[in-house]
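Morning. Coffee machine broken again, so started the prediction first thing and wrote up yesterday's gels while waiting. Chain of 497 residues, entered below exactly as on the submission form.
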Amino acid sequence: MSYISAYFIIFVFIMMVLYYLFPLKLRYLVLLAGSLLFYSLSGLRGFIFVSLSFIAAYISAILMDRVYEKGEGDGAKLKNKARLFFFPAIAVILGLLVYTKCIRSMPLGISYYSFSVMGYLADVLWRKDRAERNPLKLLLYMLYFPHIVEGPIPRHSTLGGRLSEGHAFDYRNICFGLQRALWGFFKKLMIADRCSVLVGSIFSADSSCSGVMIPLGVILSALMIYTDFSGCMDIALGVSQCFGVTLSENFKRPFFSTNVAQFWRRWHITLGAWFKDYICMPVTISAPVKKFSKVIRKKYGSAAGRNATTTVALIITWICTGLWHGSGMGYLLWGCYWGFLLTVTTIFEKQLISLRSALKIDADAPWYRYLCMVRTFLFFCGGRFITTAGGIGGMIALIKKAFSVFNLWVFFDGSIYELGLERHDINALLIGTAVLIIVSTLQEKNAADGKGGIRMSLASCPLLLRWAVYLTAVFTVLIFGYYGAGFDASNFLYMKF
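Came back before lunch.
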């Protein structure tokens, strides 16, 4: 069942009615039943994989908890005993994930629930969380329907209690949740799906597009993936808020970032946090890396030793991040690309600050901040270029096509209208993008000033004005949304991960 369907909207409203009719302590069972139904509609095959991962995680966590409860031996010995139950479970869960990626037939949400439960098991091993003894609550944590499609990737210690405690009816939660979901539908149907048509036409195998069409396609690809992915997150977080369950933010206006490190603290936030906590930090403090850093430090000094540790940890982390996105060469190159950028900006941060000071550049000057935002966006487009090309050969071919002709006139001779969208669709895309920029700018300004969000401001408006805004937004999406052939909106891009 796609989020972009009438069936999903009906499903959510039925779930809301049932949820608030049940006693508070039993409301998590409504969420579990709904999540199982939602997951079953994606195909029963997926239940085989999720069942194996669930059984491995449930048993492993309880056995690790028992090791610590008995407390026989010091902390290091207890952890070594717990690892005997940790690694087999990780092998099962990770093995299933790798297998589905290799055969390129991935059940719904397997990357997201696999990372969630692997993080949960690591937290139990490190005694940052306790094992969940109720199997139904653990299963709900894995399959909760608002986050199973594209995340976010939650911590059990944060989300587990929110799901199981039950929440009282709150008009504001429902109102704000529906508003946010509507904003997600706007991003997806007004912008992302139109961009998808243009990007598909520009980069299709039989496309004759060349010259400035190639960088245009990359920019549209960047806009497409942002509005598609963040739109899905808005729907997921909004629907979840209707049940009183707060999910972690996954996007915070990343294109306002002034450097690549800040960008990845704003883009796919929960995935970045997962790799930082469960890959980057363990690699950093691992014995081999410490030994390597010590050798470098003795030979070249303490700064070189720290830089060596940073380099190894970031490169390994970003190779893993690339492989999470896909098994092809393009994604491996993408991971190396971002690992290199983050390594350089981290290691040479002081030198870059010194250079800026020597040039007497005010870091807070608006022109400089905008320049940095553009630079960061272009870095992101570079990453999109790599994954769009699919590998070194594809990159070379696209570069040749981009520089084969200088054809700025395509923006004025009607060539744009031959890429699959009619004039009114192009106009709707431009207007939708303008609205996105305006709303995002207001959100960024409110966040910087410590003010409430746009929804809070709207809530304080007179009733008639509020409903005029709501109805305008709803009818804009219904009338001007892009639904494709047969009025069938496309699925979200990150579902395949």
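The chain has three domains: 6-164, 171-247+399-490, 260-390. Going to sketch it on the whiteboard this afternoon.
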